[in-house]
Specification:
- The protein is 46% helix and 22% strand.
- The chain is flat and about 60 Å long.
- The termini are far apart.
- The protein contains twelve helices and 13 strands.
- β1 and β2 form a beta hairpin.
- The strands form four sheets. Strands 3, 4, 5, 6, 10, 11 and 13 form a seven-stranded mixed beta sheet that branches.
- It has three domains: 86 residues, Arc Repressor Mutant, subunit A, CATH 1.10.10.10; 99 residues, 3-Layer(aba) Sandwich (D-Maltodextrin-Binding Protein, domain 2); 105 residues, D-Maltodextrin-Binding Protein, domain 2 (3-Layer(aba) Sandwich).
- Pfam families: HTH_1, LysR_substrate.
Length: 299
């Protein structure tokens, strides 16, 4: 088990003790529950200890688990203090800034931010790490990036979350699809019952759609792919409808490659968020956030 994976599992144990649920703990860390369960099982094998008791009513730490979680909390506090101290020291000398962004933000918003930041702060070397929202949150939690920009809800422990701007999703189909010619909007129940082209679990777009429709009895996906362009290309090819950010579909709508289908009873607006470790944001990350806010506001 790598050191990063071990630290993540330690955070899981602490949260299971606090929340009484593997699923809730996983969501706080921006992980899929299946990944969290595998990480816990692997850690139990490595340590040779039974750490978590699972039941239909939830999960709780075993006596050994409670002891390990207590030690883990102390160790994690020291790791976080060290990480923040090093980040502050690095900020004093310019150096390097690691930015993480989910795909939609990285492809359609971040390029403008990076161009302006390079002009205003040429002394700072910037790396942009593109991943889905879940992986971006994990990269932040493990210290791989200094600041992140995500589309999914970010109820994650040890992370500060601010809204950056609003985005809107759109239901789109190929021009030959029956929905392209319908006069009435698609409602939530019909959308949930329809096989769609979707992004992979962990994607912010997928997470928003799941939160809207999972209680309605979802149809299995027509196709699951791991990029916005692959989703859009599949729609253009006539595979099935899809729900994507208007940032992604705007050009295809203008050229007539896809058709915007009206909906009713489904709120397709969502916030795009900025996240950073639970400590005051320091340069150069704070400088980058200022640029992102100014560009997002049209400044």
């Amino acid at each position: 088990m790598s050191r990063d994976a071990e630290l993540t599992t330690m955070r899981l144990l602490v949260l299971i003790g606090d929340l009484g649920s593997v699923g809730k703990a996983a969501r706080r860390l921006g992980m899929a529950q299946s990944n969290a369960s595998r990480a816990l099982a692997r850690y139990e094998r490595v340590t040779g200890l039974h750490l978590v008791d699972r039941s239909a009513s939830g999960s709780r730490l075993s006596p050994h688990g409670e002891l390990v979680a207590t030690w883990a909390e102390e160790a994690l506090r020291a790791v976080d203090d060290f990480t923040h101290a090093v980040a502050s020291l690095r900020a004093e000398v310019g150096g390097h800034l690691a930015v993480g962004a989910s795909q939609t933000i990285a492809e359609y918003l971040a390029p403008r931010w990076l161009a302006r930041f390079r002009i205003e702060h040429p002394e700072v070397e910037v790396t942009l790490k593109v991943a889905n929202s879940e992986d971006t949150l994990h990269a932040l939690a493990t210290g791989v990036i200094d600041i992140g920009f995500v589309e999914s809800p970010a109820d994650v422990t040890g992370v500060r979350v601010n809204m950056l701007l609003s985005d809107e999703l759109a239901l789109v189909v190929a021009p030959g699809h029956p929905w392209a010619r319908r006069s009435r909007p698609v409602d939530a129940a019909e959308l949930a019952a329809t096989a769609l082209v979707v992004r992979e679990p962990g994607s912010g777009t997928r997470g928003t759609l799941d939160a809207l429709l999972d209680d309605l009895g979802r149809a299995d996906p027509a196709l699951e792919v791991s990029s916005n362009s692959a989703v859009l290309g599949s729609v253009v090819a006539g595979v099935a409808p899809a729900v994507l950010s208007r940032l992604v579909v705007d050009a295809a709508l203008r050229t007539g490659q896809v058709v915007d289908v009206p909906t009713t009873g489904v709120d397709l607006r969502r916030p795009l968020r900025v996240v950073w470790p639970d400590a005051p944001l320091v340069p150069p990350a704070s400088d980058f956030l200022a640029v992102a806010r100014a560009e997002s506001a049209g400044g």
